[in-house]
Amino acid sequence: MKLNTMSDAIAKYVHNGDTIAIEGFTAFICFAAAHEILRQKLEGLTICRMTPDLIYDQMVAAGCVKKMVFSYLGNPGVGSLHCIRRAIENGIPNKIEIEEYSHFGMVGRYMAGAAGLPFFPLKSYLGADLAEVNPNICFVDNPYGKDRVAVVPALNPDVAIVHAQRCDRQGNTQLWGLIGMQKEVAFAAKHVIVVVEEIVLEDVIRSDPNRTLIPHIVVDSVVHQPYGAHPSYVQGYYDRDNKRYLAWEKVSRDQAATEAWLAEWVFGVDNWEGYLARLQAEEPNIWDRLAPGSAPSQPVNYGTYG
Amino acid sequence: MKLNTMSDAIAKYVHNGDTIAIEGFTAFICFAAAHEILRQKLEGLTICRMTPDLIYDQMVAAGCVKKMVFSYLGNPGVGSLHCIRRAIENGIPNKIEIEEYSHFGMVGRYMAGAAGLPFFPLKSYLGADLAEVNPNICFVDNPYGKDRVAVVPALNPDVAIVHAQRCDRQGNTQLWGLIGMQKEVAFAAKHVIVVVEEIVLEDVIRSDPNRTLIPHIVVDSVVHQPYGAHPSYVQGYYDRDNKRYLAWEKVSRDQAATEAWLAEWVFGVDNWEGYLARLQAEEPNIWDRLAPGSAPSQPVNYGTYG
Amino acid sequence: MEPMDRMFAYTPSEMMIATAARALEGERVVFVGVGLPNIACNLAQRTVSPDLELVYESGVFSARPARLPLSIGDPTLVSCATSVVGMADLFMNYLQGGRIETAFLGAAQIDRCGNLNSTVIGDYQNPKVRLPGSGGACEIAIHARKIYIIMPLSKRSFVEKLHFITSPGHVSHMPGERVKLGMPGSGPQLVITNQAVFEFRNGEMTLYSIHPGFTVDEIKSEVAWPLKVAADLQTTLLPSDDELRIIRKELDPDGIYTSK
Amino acid sequence: MEPMDRMFAYTPSEMMIATAARALEGERVVFVGVGLPNIACNLAQRTVSPDLELVYESGVFSARPARLPLSIGDPTLVSCATSVVGMADLFMNYLQGGRIETAFLGAAQIDRCGNLNSTVIGDYQNPKVRLPGSGGACEIAIHARKIYIIMPLSKRSFVEKLHFITSPGHVSHMPGERVKLGMPGSGPQLVITNQAVFEFRNGEMTLYSIHPGFTVDEIKSEVAWPLKVAADLQTTLLPSDDELRIIRKELDPDGIYTSK
């Protein structure tokens, strides 16, 4: 049975010391999974994400991170990630090891991981300093010319947590909007937890097979967790809660305030349903405020043949 | 103005001695373009396709091909490509140079071409003979291990001709079904002719942006050519005309019969409309026979935000 | 019932299909071509492996064809599949990514190590017969976790030395040759023919099971090298009535692939 | 009308936006971030370059935002775009594939060759201030055909030696350095600041145009190296009334990005 609660999925697939990737470029960021990882008191994690965003800022602040692999540290459209800066600049709450790439470098690492390649080539890094501080960035000779091409090593996380709009009960997963690296990280990981807004019938999936980016054979666990990406967004389901991105900018400037926030919003609730209840208590019409209007795709005909 | 007749598009973008790719894996094979190339008496072409199929069998038989780059020679589900075999085995109508890869090798060549990489790595060819007869297949050392990885060079055709279901007047192109390498070959080529079953309003394209695999910035010319992929098929628009694939198996066994076929179906008509008229004269209900039933994709909501 | 009594109750193709289907018991993700492998996989789904997932080289995953597909690119495979992807995803993420457990291959020639030739008869530069070439076969042979080969037994095909190695099998008799060359898959496991089934023992094709009605000597005479015979030689089980019924009524009612 | 008379009729941000928009005349495909570059590109579409295509690093092509986007990943950019692709396609086929003509970059530090630092102030291993890092900037700097840099002029930013090279500009004074390193793009073309516009001549940042109200000496004092001044020094054209109206009424009605 693949359909699990978040609590069971995390307990089963995420272990102390694991390398995990919770991806999603601005959208689909699965805060529900991160909070559950914190509640389960996992330790010594290596966390990978192109854009650590608030989700890893919170994880770093909670002290469960040993190392972070990334390519851009920012609160998108807002400012800095203060908790991560505190950890890097001052070792608060603990010193974390960092392994840094450019976006394309992370893209290449996931692509190689997904594709069973030891490395991925890209034309980058020459003339810049990143390869000087990251020995995992190498160069190979181009056998068809005289130039050298940068390569980055495959990244194969122990666990990937991938948020999406919908899947069927087997885990065949469809997503649309900013698809980011969701497909590649799912193929790259040893275990995959898919978290969706909706579980749909297999027939819905089968009506549009080109939209299925993640097939069930790479999915270990399916979690049905509506609003699981709040305060980030899910295209067509809810908008980004920018108010709370702005609020984090203030909270996160101070470690004590951050810990108080975590105590209230993460450790002070039993699960994501508890978080959502607290959210709605604070702002009763939140889901109305964040509800997008309707903009359906025009259907295409796959045809019947037989 | 991007919207052209096939005749104008071929005249403008395809020249003697060019390297061209008319791709499409079993589906989307643009016979309309190939026939027009033959009518315009182009010469000395290098033709690239993973599966040369009937389309390149016809081009080779007509004598316009100097060289062929490919990975699988077959009349899919039927048998041999007799014209190409005659050219390779007996130099009829002329000896052609061949440059051969596996499917993944061709995939890698198009990917590198699309991505501006000099080469693409793949774990293949060791233990087999293809690299012995194709010096373009090389090996590089894996800097992260002790193994070697095969690489193939970028393929950047002078012209790619890409068939699809629909695009807007600018050339923003959507396709579904067996998408094959249509996207990559379009990005890899120096010039791109998109041939579609339907020209649709930009709003149709914009209602489902994830379905747009080829953006207008890579498209030089748009040709509206319904049934332009016959006797191959276009998902949701018409079925493969297998009768004619089977018929070709007989015709193509003999060079004289093949030339008679070309005289009638290619040189004996002015354009694709002429071919279709002849087809319908031979089989009045052909498009009824090949019409698929309706199987629409279920819409997804992209949402309005603003 | 003696084997000879049933000799005309099933065709050689049906025998190969039933044998292949049974070999799929417990497999999860299989890479298929059209023809016999396709029918064998569909038969396995209906008998020993209901959860078997079929992946087609054209990029189709978990198809639900409404008719017998004419080729791996048939549109009937696309409609109602759970996922359809481009060639890049197929070769990168599915095949090279190690997601394919089992794949079927055939060829014009096979050698005792299970290396396959589907490229050329004669010299590559001046071929006597130009064959289709690799397609995806070279990579399938390297990456699928297990390879099952289906081809008719004949001395013209089971040769001492291939004219061209299109797809590597166990490469040579040197143990660990595949590992040394960095091949993730474990190579050919079975060769299923119209007369017998062969296994690979220490990388060498070994007669393992004879179809009813054939003898070891007959089979040896169709193989160009001195054939090893397993000490535990078996007789291949006949297709059951159920299997024959499914093949004939459901999978190939017109006998396109199975009448011979 | 004298420049000084208009000093308070426009903000420094508006000046930078108008200057950047005009630089986009004749450009076709521009890579944008949020903030000033985004507004500049939208202004260019409404003035000098109606056919300008905007590509966002998040994978969005030809967006039609119904509101001012909060970030490059805003869902309003996705709805009604002509194409939305994943990161792999964006970096492989659009950027490295050479489809991006022009891109905007900013940074915490810039040197005289247009190399940029957005990674760290102080030592990388023991940073004084940890900045965002590259994101896509390193590859944008290498692959976009032309780079326009937008950043406020200040001695803290326009430094003799970067603490870290995040994104290569013209690399060094050696001619052809970018070509030698295999960089397809031609590197930084302009640095647009709140006080002046700089061009690169022989790979060196050169004062080319001064905004009304500033002097060469003032500008020199904000640059850490001996600044070269173009012989054909210009005065930057003021934002026109039309440009200001579009910025204020249509593009940033709440003055989020342009009030300062």
Please provide a written account of the structure:
The complex is a heterotetramer, with two copies of chain A (306 residues) and two copies of chain C (260 residues). Chain A is an alpha/beta fold. Chain A has two domains: 6-101 and 156-286, Glutaconate Coenzyme A-transferase (3-Layer(aba) Sandwich), CATH 3.40.1080; 124-153, no CATH class. Chain A has helices spanning 6-13, 31-39, 53-62, 82-90, 103-115, 130-133, 182-188, 202-206, 242-251, 255-265, 272-282, 286-289; strands at residues 3-4, 19-22, 45-48, 65-70, 97-100, 119-122, 138-141, 148-153, 159-167, 173-174, 191-199, 212-214, 221-224. In chain A, the strands form two sheets. In chain A, strands 1, 2, 3, 4, 5, 9, 10, 11, 12 and 13 form a ten-stranded mixed sheet that branches. In chain A, helix 2 (31-39) packs parallel to helix 3. Chain A is globular, with a radius of gyration of 20 Å. The two termini of chain A are 33 Å apart. In chain C, strand 13, helix 8 (216-220) and strand 14 form a beta-alpha-beta unit. In chain C, helix 2 packs across helix 3 (36-46) and helix 3 crosses helix 9. Chain C has helices at residues 3-6, 12-23, 36-46, 75-78, 87-96, 137-143, 177-180, 216-220, 241-251; strands at 29-32, 53-56, 60-61, 83-84, 102-105, 109-110, 116-117, 120-122, 127-130, 146-150, 188-192, 196-201, 204-210, 228-235. Mean pLDDT of chain C is 93; it is low at 1-7. Chain C has one domain (12-194, 238-251): Glutaconate Coenzyme A-transferase, CATH 3.40.1080.10. Chain C has nine helices and 14 strands. In chain C, the strands form three sheets. A ten-stranded mixed sheet of chain C has the order 4-3-2-1-5-10-11-12-13-14, with helices on both faces. In chain C, strands 6-7 form a two-stranded antiparallel sheet. By secondary structure, chain C is an alpha/beta fold. Helices cover 26% and strands 22% of the residues of chain C. Chains in contact: A-B, A-C, A-D, B-C, B-D. At the A-B interface, strand 6, strand 7 and strand 8 of A face strand 6, strand 7 and strand 8 of B.
